[in-house]
Write a structure and sequence with these properties.
heterodimer; A: alpha/beta; Alpha-Beta Plaits; Rossmann fold; seven-stranded parallel beta sheet; five-stranded parallel beta sheet; 10 helices; B: alpha/beta; two-stranded antiparallel sheet; 6 helices; 15 strands; globular
Chain lengths: 399, 260
Amino acid sequence: MASIKVHLEKCTGCTLCVKACAFGAIHMSERKAVIDMAKCTLCGACVAACKFSAIELEKSGGPKKDLSAYKDVWVFCEQKKGVIQSISYELLGEGRKLADKLGVKLCAVLLGHGLEDAAHKLGERGADKVYLADHPALKAYQDDPYTTVLVNLVEEYKPEVLLCGATTIGRSLISRVAIKTEAGLTADCTGLDVDLKERLLLQTRPAFGGNIMATIIAPNHRPQMATVRHKVMQEAAVQPGRAAEIISKAYPEETFASRTKLLDVIEELTNTVNISEADIIVAGGRGMGGKENFSLLEELAKTLGGAVGASRSAVDADWIPYSHQVGQTGKTVVPKLYFACGISGQIQHLIGMQSSKIIVAINRDPDAPIFKVATYGIVGDATEIVPALTREFKRALNK
Amino acid sequence: MNIIVCIKQVPNTTDVRIDPVTNTLIRDGVESVINPFDAYAIEEAVRLKERCGGKVTALTMGPPQAENALKEAIGLGCDEGVLVSDRKFAGSDTWATSYTLACAIEKLEAYDVILCGKQASDGDTAQVGPGISTHLDIPQVTYVKKIAEINDKTAKVERMTEEGYDVVEIPLPCLFTVVKEINTPRMPSLKGMMRAKSAKIAKWTAADLDADPAALGLDGSPTRVVKIFTPEARKGGEMISGTCDEVAKELVELLKGEVV
């Protein structure tokens, strides 16, 4: 059984570990760290924080399989209705960098039906190889056949890294594949790098609502799997004419069996863009004063080609549907530009948007917490300032 | 209908604050609550029981104090609570957690539906629900926003997608992870609270489960944390003041490069 211990001779009593512990499990006694085992979760945060190697996390068992057989960086490329989703290009952009550092091939995995042309596009986005499984049962996402095919591919070709979008499809699929292949999986990474010596994928992700960052590895398991959110990585540029080797895979019919049956796909057309994919989000909260004022936000969003977001209180007041909600119980977004209009900035909202590149806050209350994270702050009535902004942007953009 | 709802006790994020001097988490006095997404799973489980009859068992893995979350779930209408707690589970990542919960579920009597929140607010992984269904080898639908039809053989549900929703038919037994849109959780009733107070929670350790010891806790977890750091705190930036038109002009000038 795994255990943790403090090497008292190395401990200097510096208290770095106490600060690193998110569970309040470490205290100092006679200038030495003492771990309260009732509270400790063996998360390893203190081990990582200690500068004197005084805390050791012992784990029994090493690799169960030959890790050296695993090579190449894979990207699961999501498609909907035959269209490759932009998250796949973002992953190919990042995957290319990792593959080059590791000196291996970048391979795309594409599952669907009638995708020959789409597969060729992946070469232009940097893939060296495309593993293509083309079958009517893969046309739209279903957990069972997608899992079976991806597990088959992983077991046959043994990638060392497998990246996947942190989307509805990606999160459902990759969680199942990781269990079946006994792989380590890290969710929602915001940074990826490699430790060349150990050939480890260094996966950095926010924890505790972005209050701390953790770097995670999977030393004894392959593939090393990670999901990445939208807009975190840079899209791979198109290199016209660049070709990938296409490896078409055929499987026996039972591979495509599905216990669930997709009866219908409903698209709820809204006049605005999907907020998780938007580069610009104009979000409103209680300070917008009422449902009717959300049209002001829509107008600004339309001018900028962005999407409309909302705080929980605006959604709870029925001013806008839940699909627009940003924050802990809504969506986490990372746009280039986020307008927080009449949003006070409760922690639950900040969690969902504080990684945006530029944040503009407009609020009547000069002490609103939103100003603490804002790149640009304006104290005033959002219902007056937003229309003025729309006018100015229209002028600047010649609209 | 036998329904299992898997829940997690998490720190209340409203209480998690950063010490402005040391830039570390202040955990003192942080209250533990039921993961907000699990509240919808509990409510849906109770509604399923009201719709089809049967029993709801709330299940959690965690430290001894996670018993409180189960009592709260009973107060909200669940019939029984099972706490799976052991030092041997410490250090579990999502692989080991879903394995442990799946082992506990196999020990319970035959089930028809397992409900989970779509993700936990402290880890945000959304991996444990799909992990449980994979370990149990049962079908799943994630991000369920409506259970439109259900009988003892099949269910028809709506899965939220980025563009709208899918309508999916699934045979029972199965697992659903649910989103906020599925319902509005009720408040605990007085009767429920009384029941919760006197409720006996079953407590299982690793020895009670038919589990491979090497697959539990840190040993059974492929992932490991190697570094923890505080992200550079986002600093409040520039304040722009003036009349409506003045601030609009200035802001547009500052943002021009970003929007073209």
